[in-house]
Structures are given as C-alpha cells and as structure tokens.
C-alpha cells in the first residue's frame, strides 16, 4: 500500500528512457482534493539541485496539486538551463492536469552535473499523466528507484483517514535528509500550518536520525499532500503519531536497503543531559568509519565506540568518560569506561540488526536512537563504481 | 636520520614480547642535556589512555628527560590499574636513568581495553636502557610501529642546530591528532615557553591537517625535547620553520602509509573569507566517504566534492555555491558550480597523489590544504580485521 492508499490520490509510473536500465523512471502523484494542502522539507545542503529551488517556492504557500519525480538524473549543478528544465517540467504537468505550474512539486534523483534528456522526460510525463489511476501507487514507487533494490512504500491507518507513502534512497543517507525522495499522502483534513508542523516533527524524529554515510544530497525532498477526501479532521496527536510512524517505517526501509551494507546498526544513547547531547554522541558513533568497519567484521569493538563518543566536545554533551557503559546486542562489553563482560559473548555474525547502547549516566534526557549501516567491501565497490 | 641526529640524545628500541610478531616494541629516547626543556600536545579526545593522563602532568612543568614508548598495547580504558602500570613504567625508567619519574613521558599504542604485560614491558625497558646509544634512533623508530609498513623519521638542519624526529601512525589519522605518536628532538637552546608555542604552531599546521578517517585516538601524543647541546640559541622564526618542516614531513609520511590507501589526497581550499572557513570546507571534503570512494575508483566526481562543501553551514564558511570552481589534478572539472572541462581529461589511475582545489571566490584568506586518503577495499579489510 502506498501513496494511492488514502482517498483522493492518483499516481502513475512509466519508463521514459532516462534510466539506462530501461526501467520505470518517471512518476506522477496527483492530489484530486477537495483540499490541496501540502508541506515539504528539503536538504540542508547549500548546494541544491534545480528541482529543490523550484519546489521550495512551489510549496511555499502550503498548496500543491501534484508531484512529478524522475530518476535517471539529479538535475543538480546544471546552471540556469537546468532550472529552466525543471520549470518546463512543472509547466508541462500543469497543462496536462489543468492546474497552475506553481502548484507542481518537482523531484529528481540520479547523477549530478548532467542535463536531463528533456524530450524523453516530457514524453514520459505525458505518458504518466495518461496512466494516472487510483491503483498507480506501486508503479510510482518503482519509478523513483535508483540503486534501491526494493520499492519502499507504507500505509498507516487512522480513524477514518490514513497516511500512505513512498520513498527512494539507498546509501548517502544523512541527518537533515539524504539522497532521498519521499512522498507522503493523507486523506485527513489538515490546515497548512498543521501539515507543515507535523511533517517537520515526523522528519526530525525519523529521516533525520538515519545516517548511512554522513553525506547530504543536493536533492533530498520529503513532501506531504493532504486531500481531505476522508472528510475527517483528525485528532492532531493521532495524526502526528500516524505520520511519524509512516516516516519511521520508510526511514527504516532506507537503512535496510543501504548500498552494500551487511548490518543495520541502531545506536541508542541514554542518560544524556539533553536530547541534543544524546544526538551528538549517537551521530559521532554512527559516523565513525572505524566503528562501522568493526561491525562489518562482526567485532563488538567497544574501544572504538567510546573513542568516537569522546570526540564530542564537553560543552555539547557533558558526561564523565569514566562513567560510560556500552552494551552491544544485550552484552555489556564496557562498564564504567573499562572492560566489561566478555566480548566473545556478542554474536554479530548471526544478526543483520546490531543494537549498540551507550549509557552516559549524565542526565535524564529520553533515549535517542540513530540508525546507520556498517562499512563494507560492497559499499566501497558500489560507491567507487557508481558514476562509471 | 632521526631522534638521535641532534646532539645530546640517546635512544634504543628492543623486542620485549608485547607484539605478537616478535618485533621491536619498546623504545626509549633520553635527553642528556644540558637542557631538559620539553613540550607536548595530546589528543583532544575526552576518552584518553592512562599514558596521556600521566604525560600531561609529567610535561606540565616544561621539563622532561626521557620518553618511553611501547607498541603492542594502548593501555586505554584499563581503569586505575592501567594508570598504575603507566606510573610504574615511568618510575622504572627514572630509576634506571637516575632521573625523577615525573620527568619521564610515557606513550603507548595498540589495542584498547587490555592491560599491558607488565613483566615483559619492565624487562623491555631495562633492556632498552642498557642499549641506549647515540645511534639508537632507527631502532626506536622501528619499535613504535604498529600497522605501519615503514619507520618514519626526519632530520632538518638549522644553523649549528637541527631538528630530528620519529613518528608512528597508519590510519585513524584525524585533525587534532591521530593514532599517532611522535617524538621530535632538537639540540637548539630553547626556553619552555618557546618550545611550547613552537610545537603547538607546528602541529596546528601539519598533524592537525591530516585526516585519514575522521577518527581521533585515545593515545595521540607529540613530544618535543630540547637538549641545548648545540650551545646555539636559534632565531625564533628559523626554528619555527625547521620544526614545522620536520612535522610536515612526518605528517606527509603518515598519509603515505595510511592503512589500505591507494591515493594520497590533498584538498586545497582557496578564496575563503578566513582560515577557519577554508579549513571547515577542506575537512568536510576530506571526510566524505563518497568523495573518498570516488577517488578510489579513479573518478574525479566533482558533484560529490561540491555537495560535501555544501554541508558546511553558511555562518562557518560564507560563499556562493554558484561561484565554486573545482580543479582535480589540474583539470577544472567544475566551473561556477556547474559543468567545467571534460572529466575524462583527469587521469587518476596513474598517480598516487590527487590534488583537489576548491576555489570559493568569497575572500582573500590564504589557501589551506588538508591531506587524506581514499577509501578502499583494503581499508575496510584492515579495519574490520584489526582486533581479531
């Protein structure tokens, strides 16, 4: 179940020849209303692709009627011509659907620094518009895949309304978004402020806590479209929970499909003085190549874990290094900054999921979990060969 | 030529059985004076090994008469017992040399979280003291090697004085030091303030601008010993230049010997508004796994380079993303944030050294260069197998 699971949406995914594989590469998601409320969050990278520049403005008024997405080219670092390509794509969608180009969000993913094949893309958009249907969600989810090995979709039920979604992304995942495109849909009745606040909170707690290789892409976009077709105005907290749950499932699916990974690693930090402190320590650990290679080697190397924690400045995360406990998959391998239980008790070879818990014993902030992957031969292979 | 090249120093390196290879693993460097001026800089990691805790105090008064170093064990995260081991080692050296234990700097390198084999280490120190000679520098440099493939030594001549040095380190190199031990010696006459200031400036410009994998070790130490045996008080700027040059050569040797690397990568940032801004951009690029895997794949992937630059916040490094130029080994592959010269003109397969220059066109700060390595299959292999 995906973006077309909530009422009021049609979608399509077609092959336009942008991807060398010949697979589907143009997706269209349309909100048939009655409401056209929308919100979006974008990469915090200062180097942004043309579609991000366009879409920030398009969704700036809290209204959008369609999202057009293509794989096979990021349209990033393509200059004024690249921006014109995005603009023309939005206008073409607008004409086909009879809506304003300014209500069309555009997303692109693929290689940086190359112009899109506009004749192919334009024909693809025309074909996608003709193929729009209330069952088109799975095709759309397939069309946005790049190095993804599986399409990522979600559906979370509310009370008379629901949240659907699709995402693409594999590797290059980082806080404040990733090489990641995500469209969330709901038939709940929302106003623009509520949609914006709910989307920001959901991404903060989910996509922003996934950190595959510390990179931030030029194109990352998460869009929420609300059709209001259920006629139900949801309880705000219930809607927030459902939206966050949908985003969480998609974020988890991104980690599970990260390029070349052999483990999904959850780093949980407890006992920090603040959420900010806990996040900083968790991120320092998830970004350590030495921790990530150790996990690949099925080695619960707690020395590297606490040495990574030690790189966080004291004013960011106050704690006593001699108080740190580290638990890996339930075995407390480090106690009070020193040797704990026998590390040979930890079996990493047998589990895809690795749970690292670092107890700071410094305060009573709630636990924070950041997900990442191990650093493997396949990661090096896929990312050194990606553009060739 | 190494730590015993300047007058007034003796050194030794012996095999004590700490390393499973059976190679030399205990080094001793003694300053016979007449001066015993010393300075040191240590890791900025908050999780520090026992020898770092000890040596900070030992050198705190600007005086040291000997440095004892062991490979085969980091003595980190070993609790109060580990600190006692370091203390005992310093006392043993003091007794053998007839100096105060408080004037003995201790350095350890190897695995974290395991106690040292103290009977073996003590016997090794006794043997090293007996073997001390003015020709012992090369043996000492060999004894501090861990995964290093070559011993790293340096000698820079001044006017009637000189600077010698040795270092160990391969991988785990990061700003503000690395899994790296370095002893620098000089027979110039220095006072304690001058020695401290000169060492901090030299490390700031050299070791702190090497970033192999973003890690900071628990044990990193750089020590400077000044014997005054030349009887010459050097011109301060000349001494600074010589010390910085010695440190630069050792830092460059560390990069050249980084674990599993196939390229040495120099990232130079020009046209920043400040040195801080240039450094922040250079570090963001040298820490990007996507840039590092691309270099391994001999791919001058400028999109990943500018996307990494784009992760630096604007208040840290002001620049216009649409003004960025990127040159790789002399070919300007990105111009004004967009496509530049044909990237196929860049031949990375044929050169160990890769020079990336990013022109920000934002200010007139002097260029800053940070060195790193590519991310390779061998890096993953060596770091996933290190503790097994």
TrEMBL record, chains A, B:
Q: In which pathway does it act?
A: Amino-acid biosynthesis; L-arginine biosynthesis; L-ornithine and N-acetyl-L-glutamate from L-glutamate and N(2)-acetyl-L-ornithine (cyclic): step 1/1; Amino-acid biosynthesis; L-arginine biosynthesis; N(2)-acetyl-L-ornithine from L-glutamate: step 1/4
Pinpoint the site Cleavage: 178-179
Provide the catalytic activity annotation.
Answer: N(2)-acetyl-L-ornithine + L-glutamate = N-acetyl-L-glutamate + L-ornithine; L-glutamate + acetyl-CoA = N-acetyl-L-glutamate + CoA + H(+)
Entry annotation: catalytic residues:
179 (nucleophile)
Q: Which domain of life is it from?
A: Bacteria
Instruction: Give one GO molecular function term.
Output: L-glutamate N-acetyltransferase activity, acting on acetyl-L-ornithine as donor
Coiled-coil regions in this chain?
none
**Where does this polypeptide localize?**
Cytoplasm
Residues of the site described as Involved in the stabilization of negative charge on the oxyanion by the formation of the oxyanion hole: 109-110
EC number(s) stated in the UniProt entry for this protein: 2.3.1.35, 2.3.1.1
Signal sequence, start to end: none
Which annotated residues bind substrate?
Answer: 146, 168, 179, 259, 383, 388
- Enzyme category, top tier: transferase
Q: Name the keywords, alphabetized.
A: Acyltransferase, Amino-acid biosynthesis, Arginine biosynthesis, Autocatalytic cleavage, Cytoplasm, Multifunctional enzyme, Transferase
Q: What SUPFAM superfamilies does the database record attribute to this sequence?
A: DmpA/ArgJ-like
InterPro entries given in the database record: Arg_biosynth_ArgJ, ArgJ-like_dom_sf, ArgJ_beta_C
Indicate the family of this protein: Belongs to the ArgJ family.
* Job of this protein: Catalyzes two activities which are involved in the cyclic version of arginine biosynthesis: the synthesis of N-acetylglutamate from glutamate and acetyl-CoA as the acetyl donor, and of ornithine by transacetylation between N(2)-acetylornithine and glutamate.
Q: How does it assemble?
A: Heterotetramer of two alpha and two beta chains.
The name under which this protein is listed is Arginine biosynthesis bifunctional protein ArgJ
Species assigned in the record: Georgenia wutianyii
Q: Give the gene name.
A: argJ
């Amino acid at each position: 179940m995906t973006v077309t699971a909530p009422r009021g949406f049609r979608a399509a995914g077609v092959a336009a020849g942008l991807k060398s594989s010949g697979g589907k590469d143009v997706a269209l998601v349309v909100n048939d209303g009655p409401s056209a409320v929308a919100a979006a969050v974008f990469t915090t990278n200062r180097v942004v692709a043309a579609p991000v520049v366009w879409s920030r403005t398009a969704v700036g008024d809290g209204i959008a009627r369609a999202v057009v997405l293509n794989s096979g080219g990021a349209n990033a670092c393509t200059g004024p011509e690249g921006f014109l390509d995005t603009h023309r794509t939005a206008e073409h969608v607008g004409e086909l659907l009879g809506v304003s180009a300014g209500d069309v969000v555009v997303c692109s993913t693929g290689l940086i620094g190359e112009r899109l094949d506009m004749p192919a893309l334009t024909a693809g958009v025309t074909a996608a518009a003709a193929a729009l249907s209330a069952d088109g969600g799975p095709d759309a989810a397939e069309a946005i895949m790049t190095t993804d090995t599986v399409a990522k979709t979600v559906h979370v039920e509310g009370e008379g309304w629901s949240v659907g979604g699709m995402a693409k992304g594999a590797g290059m995942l980082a806080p404040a978004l990733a090489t990641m495109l995500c469209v969330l849909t709901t038939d709940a009745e929302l106003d623009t402020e509520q949609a914006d606040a709910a989307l920001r909170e959901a991404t903060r707690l989910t996509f922003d806590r996934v950190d595959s290789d510390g990179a931030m892409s030029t194109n990352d976009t998460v869009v929420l479209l609300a059709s209001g077709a259920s006629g139900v105005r949801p309880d705000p907290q219930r809607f927030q929970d459902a939206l966050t749950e949908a985003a969480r499932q998609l974020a988890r699916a991104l980690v599970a499909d990260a390029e070349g990974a052999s483990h999904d690693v959850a780093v949980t930090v407890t006992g920090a003085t603040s959420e900010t402190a806990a996040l900083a320590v968790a991120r320092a650990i998830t970004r350590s190549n030495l921790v990530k290679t150790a996990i690949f080697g099925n080695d619960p190397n707690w020395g590297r874990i606490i040495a990574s924690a030690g790189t966080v400045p004291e004013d960011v995360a106050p704690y006593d290094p001699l108080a740190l406990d580290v638990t890996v998959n339930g075995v407390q391998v480090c106690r009070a900054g020193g040797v704990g239980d026998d590390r040979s008790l930890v079996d990493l070879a047998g589990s895809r999921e690795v749970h690292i818990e670092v107890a700071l014993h410094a305060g009573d902030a709630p636990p924070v979990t950041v997900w990442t992957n191990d650093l493997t031969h396949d990661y090096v292979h896929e990312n050194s060969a990606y553009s060739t």
